[in-house]
Amino acid sequence: MYWLFRNLRFLFLASTMEFVTANDQCRTEVNIQGMALKRSVFRRWSVAAPHLCDVKCGQEIACQSYNYNRKYQICELNNRTKEARPENLLSAPSWFYIRRLNGRAPLGSIPELPAISCLEIKASEGKKTISGKYWLDPTGTGKAILINCDMASGDMDECKYNISDCHVNANCTNTYSSYKCTCKAGYTGDGHSCSADPCYHYHILSDANRKSSYTTSHPDPAFCDSSFLEGWYRFVGAAGTKMPTTRVPAYRCGTDWSGWLNGTHPTVEDGKVRRTVCFSDRSTGCTYTTYISVKNCGSYFIYKLFQLNCNSRYCGTD
User: Gene3D superfamilies, from UniProt (predicted)?
Assistant: First the structure.
């Protein structure tokens, strides 16, 4: 009879987990049957009884709560509570969930237990959580840093502490509980990925002998664009402001086979378009053609050009 009484008493204690603190104040955590906190488990053991799982939790500074499986005697330690991650408390037959009873470190209070945000700390520790510096790891790098949290709003300044994922060529603007990334002038993208806007990054073509009105003088050697590096180019100055869109006869532009745009220029709304360049022969045809990209930058055009055969050249006009 004594053995039965002792074991019934143990089961009652394991179920309610009531302890008396140093101040003789009774604190109770009631387990939640048939539930377990998922995606927060950092340790797993086989233990014979629930109170041993509680002991294991007490030995781990990062333990916030635990799950216990009575059927298979499995103990899982969590680094979060259901208050911090309510969406992760899921149905789990044979399991129960319970928050750590004694000595639980508040989330974000130590570098071994960083939160992902100020709002997560506020959810975990309650509305009375005071503003101040807390340990956070917002990007999940494993490196906790001290960040000032405004608990009235739950906000932190990701931009100030350089913990945003904005691109190196983007500006970071703090917003409530988040931030906004915007590519800097001369770059395009969503702020998280920014690439150079060709309207601000291009090569200049300015030679007067490149203009379509320039007649190639023989026996002087003809120019050619055989040394061109692939990239964006803009016609300026004596070379003109754009590529001609009407036929340019051969032996113009300082070369033999004059290159002109066989198509219209795009509008700004068209964005980058593909166009054909014809290199005129001695008659009315093309010695050969090639494809280039063209972009309207508002007040001027740019062209993505490639290396050509000799003696060929891209022509300019006004």
Answer: 3.30.750.130, Laminin (2.10.25.10)
